[in-house]
Amino acid sequence: MNNLESINPEIRELIINAGGNEAYRCYECGMCMSLCPWFQIENVTFPCYRTPQNVRLGAVLASEDKEDIAKEITELFRCVACDNCKVFCPRHVDMGDIMRAIRRILAEYDSIPKELKDVKSKLYNVGNPLGEAAEKRNDWAKELNLPIYQPGMEYGYWACCLPAYDGRLKSIAIATAKILKLARVSFGLVPTSVFCCGETARNFGTEDLFLELAQRNIAEIKRAGIEKILLTSPHCYTTFKNEYPALGADFVPIPTVELFLKLIEEKRIVPQKPIIKKVFYHDPCTLGRQNGIYDEPRAVLASIPGVELVENPLFAREYSVCCGGGAGGLWQDWPKDERIAQVRIKQVAATGAEILATACPYCILMFEDSIKTLNLNIEVKDLSELLIESLF
Amino acid sequence: MSCIVVLAEHRQENLRDITFEMLTLAQALARQMNLKVQVLYLGKNNEANAETLANYADEVIVVEDALLANFNSEIYRKVIVSTLAEHKPSLLLLGHTAFGTDLAPGLAYDLNLPLITDCIEITYEDNRIVATRPLYSGKLNARVYLKQPTGVLTIRAGTFKPTDTKLAGIVKKKPLPAELKTGYASNFIGYEEAPTTGIDITKADIIVAVGRGIKEAKNMPIVEELAKTLGGELACTRPVIDAGWLPKDRQVGSSGKTVKPKLYIALGISGAFQHISGMKQSQTIVAVNKDPNAPIFNVAHYGIVGDLLKIVPLLKEKIKEIKGI
Questions:
Q1: Which residues of B are less than 8 Å from A131 in CB distance?
Q2: Phi/psi zone of residue A8: left (φ > 0), alpha (ψ -120 to 50 degrees), beta?
Q3: How many helices (H) and strands (E) in chain B?
Q4: Which of B254, B269, B277 to mutate to test the interface with A (most CBs of A within 10 A)?
Q5: Dihedral class, residue A73 (left if φ above 0, else alpha if ψ from -120 to 50, else beta)
Q6: How big is the A-B interface in CB pairs under 8 Å?
């Protein structure tokens, strides 16, 4: 710290009030820094291990030079909320909470990257980060003739904004709906009055926006009478499971992968058509590290005849490296040699995998992008897309 | 209370379009309100400019001094107030530009007039001035009126056509009073041109955009030729920038530029949402892609499923044939 005179203890109070209180447990061992995915990128030294120390000192933005501060803010928005640091911290410091607390303060002053300002205004305006019309949320299902949830049905299906609106990802929602129909699962779509789950908004610091989205969703789901809600995206799932109950949610969130496995085990669907490929399963942070779901997706893949699961235990399960799409990363644009997805996809390519399978729409977009940039020959598929291929 | 004053905006003594756009509006309002159109010009060497402006106004007031050669809101504000003091205008129009927004609030205060900013329409109805101004990034328009038909208004650039109605106006020169020559806290230091970054694709009517489907740098001439044949500009997706095949100022998408051309031809572009958000408002979108399921076809008006390396040369020949070149 070469700028001690600029330390302002008030910022410490602000950060603690915003939820960053665990900084005090940190004993500066540096574990978090070595585990941070940014650590693997040359030229970038994401200073997360110094962050708890800076919180204690009230020196988060330790410079008085405008350019330096802008640079530091940019660094703070590198965090993808993958929770690698949190899971392995010997002192159980929740770096994710500290990062969110700092970003909340920055967001209050609208000091957030311009791509995220754009996402923020789209969420405020139309309730989804893509800026698409709210009433088109269920348009992906037009040709499938799916009903809106009615009381008496077992599940309400929540496709997440990305599969609902993005041209590439809607095949996930379609595959999921077809699997459910084939297994004669009783389900209906959530009404188009719901908004984005708010996970991204929460992680990049716009807490008020998150609360607004969450409260609306909780009210709409209750109004529809949904008791069990089926979720494609683990980002929605982690938010529904870990954040919504405190805001009054009483419905049960279920990730689609969990139901897929149940349907396979109960023989309500039987994967038959072989997919003779080497498949690498990538653990999304929000499903794996944040919610401990590691075995179910692997079991679903193993049930598909022909699939050969390839894995490097150094980079699997809780050691999985983030795709870089979390906490707003999907919308941010880093220079081409500063992208976490490229670090990860190289690890995948080294296993000889022909298909990267995952269970998260964010991961799919991030990896398909880096595959294009690196000119690799790997297919990226959602579990539901592989499963439906094996069923028909 | 006898005239509508338009404050002429110039940069380095080059009149800016907004001045002539405001004159269109001022002439129309003046006819209805039975007022004269006056232009106020502050500058240094401005014979030619004053004469140009006199073609479109009843009167051009010129205040000449080396101090006024470049915009300085502190000096301009004092000079404008002093010039308008004798005959307070009914309406004072300024551009809703960096120049106008800097001056308008202070002038409104000094002249004791109400202020409406960012007007896209101003009408005179039942002895009232009614202004329309956009809210929430243009999602809503608010109509507001002045209680008395007098006030300061800033006008959004590009909303009105530059005037072509001629009026034979006279030029009146006013010297800068001695007491206004000194005593300012700010002064003009220098003028720095923004670096020119080549081409601005947002202004093109026709855009030929290329994605990773082009495969190799050596294939780029194929799309360049198509753009040239059509008289359009070349644009691209981020992976093409990453590969270093085109410069960053040609990138379309959420981290590049947003374009709305009449014709957008997307070649070998899968259609990631980050790209689509930058081009979906184009009038006509034509997509060529090998993959029939590529998301780009969801926004395209016309689609061709096939290899761009084969299709683009055929397209180019056909266009040449139609154009007779």
A1: 277
A2: beta
A3: 9, 17
A4: B254
A5: alpha
A6: 45
Work out the burial of residue A13: count CB atoms within 10 Å of its CB; fewer than 13 is exposed, 13-18 middle, 19 or more buried.
exposed
Our CA-based measurement puts residue B255 at a distance from the nearest CA of chain A, in whole angstroms, of: 6
User: What is the average pLDDT value for chain B, to the nearest integer?
Assistant: 91
pLDDT at residue A1 is higher than 60: no
The predicted structure's pLDDT at residue B1: 47
Residue A219 has pLDDT above 50, yes or no: yes
Nearest partner of A242 among A91, A52, A94, judged by Cα: A94
Count of beta carbons in the 10 Å neighbourhood of residue B263: 17
Taking the C-alpha atoms of residue A56 and residue A1, their distance in angstroms, rounded to an integer, is 13
Nearest to B261 by CA among B301, B294, B295, B222: B301
Rounded mean pLDDT, B103-110: 96
Q: Residues B26, B142: contact at Cβ < 8 Å?
A: no
Q: How far apart are CA A106 and CA A120, in angstroms?
A: 14
Identity at B315, one-letter amino acid code: L
Does the pTM surpass 0.80? The reply is no
Q: Is A334 on the interface with B (CB under 8 A)?
A: no
**Residue A101 in tokens:** 């607390």
What would the two tokens of residue A236 be?
């929605």
Residues A46-70, mean pLDDT to the nearest whole number: 79
pLDDT at res. B175: 87
Report DSSP state, residue A350: H
Strands B140-146 and B128-135: what pairing?
antiparallel
- Average pLDDT, integer, range A274-293: 97
Instruction: Tell me the backbone φ, ψ of residue A380, rounded to 5 degrees.
Output: -115, 125
**Which residues are registered as beta bridge partners of B91?**
B4, B151
Token couple for A259: 């139901």
Residue B171 parent element (H or E): strand B170-175
Which tokens go with B3? 């005239």
SS3 assignment, position B129: strand
B242 and A336 within 8 Å at the Cβ level: the answer is: yes
As beta bridge partners, residue B121 has B132
ipTM of this predicted structure: 0.75
3-state SS assignment for residue B271: coil
Q: Chain B closest CA to A390's CA: distance in Å?
A: 19
Residue B306's contacts (CB-CB under 8 Å, 6 or more residues apart) are: B288, B290
Which residue has 């300024």 as its token pair? Answer: B94
For residue B267, the surrounding DSSP H or E stretch is: strand B263-267
What residues 228-247 of chain A have any CB closer than 8 A to a CB of chain B?
none
- Which residues touch A187 (CB under 8 Å, ≥6 apart)? A149, A153, A154, A155, A156, A157, A180, A230
- Is B272 within 8 Å of A125 when comparing Cβ atoms? no
**Alpha carbons B18 and A257: distance in angstroms, whole number:** 59
Q: Find how far residue B321's CA is from the centre of its chain.
A: 36
- B239 and A372 within 8 Å at the Cβ level: the answer is yes
Query: What stretch of H or E contains B41?
Result: strand B36-43
- Paired with B129 in beta bridges are B124, B146
The shortest CB-CB distance from A365 to any of B212, B239, B272 is to: B272
